Amino acid sequence: MKVEFWGQEFHANMIVGCIGGFLIAVMSSMFGFGGGPFMVPLMTVAMRLPMYIVVGSSLLAIFFNTAMGTLRHYQFGNFDLLFFLAMFPAALLGGYIGPQIAKRVSPIVVKRVACVGLILLGLKLLGLY
Amino acid sequence: MKEKLKLLKMVFVVLACLLPVSAAFAQDQGAPTLQIDRTELKNGGVIKVTGKAPPGQPVFLEVWAVDKTVRANQFDNKRDEETGKIPYIFYITHDMPAYYKIFMPSELQPKLDAIKAEGGKWSFSKALKETGADVAYNVPAGIKVDHYQATLMASVIGSRGTLLPALDADENKKRSMQLIKSRFRSYDKVLGADVNVAPDGTFSADINIRSGLAPGKYRIAAVVDRNLRSQPAEFENKISFPTMYLKNAGTSMNLLWPFLLTLVVAIFGVLMGAGGGFILNPLLVSIFPMLPHTVVAGTVMPTVLFSQGSGIYNYSKIKFINWKLGIGIGCAMLLGGFIGPKLTEMITLAQFKFAFGWILLVLAGLMFWQTTAGYLAKNKKEQAILKEFKKRAEEAAKAKK
């Protein structure tokens, strides 16, 4: 499929995009996270699209998944209103404070810390310690 | 003829009056009695139970929450050893008491230790049988358990499958035991050996009602035999803000903790350039083991909906979204989002943790790759182009105004 973006034309392999997007959507809605960290590599690496077209469009694609996943979780009775009300303001507040701290820290350091944290958390879930 | 009918009626009435009296009389003979030392708890505490039962018999205490019920579900995909077929049946109830526990004589502690040694593979029905506590298992046996025949096709379209006809009483009881395990998970949540029985039949127990349980009325009944039960004693568990009862999770919780946790994770998520859901979920299930993973997944997901929406709005203002691309892949993701939540309730917590563990390791790999020199050099160029395009887009949007 040909996509046009700011005067430039790209060839996007929609078969790869749709299959990958579908699998990421199943996984992320099953486990209840957004899916952004998987979608961006999918679109930049597997579909060979440049970063600047990916940032906005991947967010739009993920939004479909999150909206549908939310609806279905609600339908199955997995949504707890009070619990949501405890977390939602914190998520908004975090989204407001985060960018202000972001200017002062190096993203590489953050990513390396996250990397270690994710490995520890992952191993804990696998019951290895 | 009329007289005869009248007489018959009178005999009937007298009999009807006598029946409950005689039943009560039969129950009095040997039925245990029990008293509790307090009728009110503040988010858990210890209740002293004393009473008398026929001498020489083990005494079990059945304790359950009366007001609050929760959902419990279990997916049976274990191969049947006799027929060799996999049943694929999904069991669900909405009437599980939010708290349920059987306390048994303290001499049975070694049996509980044996169950502990079995780890995650313990079976509630086997535990009841081996300790003799099955005579006390009464309240959850009658809850309404629905079961569905799940098929691959039904799962693909995100349905639970076809509802099967109601279970008979025995089967219902058996399945309710499995649902108890899937709901309360660890044996020590539903079984305890705290009852001290004296040779003359008097018994006492310090029953520890843990914190974080449902508020409302609870009942305790002493049980010696299937037909020998005491009248239940009642007490109330009270909780106060910021601890609140989460209806769908079936547990009460100090809401300050998830608030703080979400705040930290959300800030960190922004710094990382990714949403925080994939950190928040595993943290919540690890830190608060009483929260069902289905509720965690189903409640964390909507929290990112708003930030995504505002992100899309901001990008669309400067025309930085390719709608064709986004909607194209979005349709595939819509389908995935339809199926995923169905799968959440079909897996156990252990499977949830296992899969999530691997997802996190893959994600850690992705994160590491994003800090390698090759990626950074490429990314620098990309970011420069991104900035350039964004500037142009913003200017174009301004010029329009």
Structural account:
The complex is a heterodimer of chains A (129) and B (401). Chain A is mainly alpha-helical and 129 residues long. Chain A has helices at 14-31, 36-46, 51-75, 81-102, 107-125, and strands spanning 2-5, 8-11. Chain A folds into two domains: 1-79, no CATH class; 80-129. Chain A contains five helices and two strands. A two-stranded antiparallel ribbon of chain A has the order 1-2. In chain B, strands 1, 2, 3, 4, 7, 10, 11, 12, 13 and 14 form a ten-stranded mixed sheet that branches. In chain B, strand 10 and strand 11 (202-209) form a beta hairpin. The relative contact order of chain B is 0.12. The longest helix of chain B is centred in the C-terminal third of the chain and has 28 residues, at 373-400. The model of chain B is unreliable at 20-27 (pLDDT under 50). At the A-B interface, strand 1, helix 1, helix 2, helix 3 and helix 4 of A face strand 15, helix 7, helix 8, helix 9 and helix 10 of B.
Attribute tags:
A: mainly alpha, two-stranded antiparallel ribbon, B: 401 residues, alpha+beta, Immunoglobulin-like, 4-stranded antiparallel beta sheet, 23% strand
Helix-strand blueprint:
The complex is a heterodimer of chains A (129) and B (401).
Chain A: E1 2-5, E2 8-11, H1 14-31, H2 36-46, H3 51-75, H4 81-102, H5 107-125
Antiparallel strand pairs in A: 1-2
Helix pairs in contact in A: 1-2, 1-3, 2-3
Chain B: H1 2-28, E1 33-36, E2 40-42, E3 45-52, E4 60-65, E5 69-76, E6 89-97, E7 100-105, H2 109-117, H3 124-131, E8 145-149, H4 152-156, E9 162-163, H5 169-184, H6 187-190, E10 191-197, E11 202-209, E12 216-225, E13 228-229, E14 233-238, E15 243-246, E16 251-254, H7 256-272, H8 277-287, H9 293-317, H10 323-344, H11 349-369, H12 373-400
Parallel strand pairs in B: 2-14, 7-10
Antiparallel strand pairs in B: 1-3, 3-11, 4-7, 4-12, 5-6, 6-8, 8-9, 10-11, 12-13, 12-14, 15-16
Helix pairs in contact in B: 7-8, 8-9, 8-11
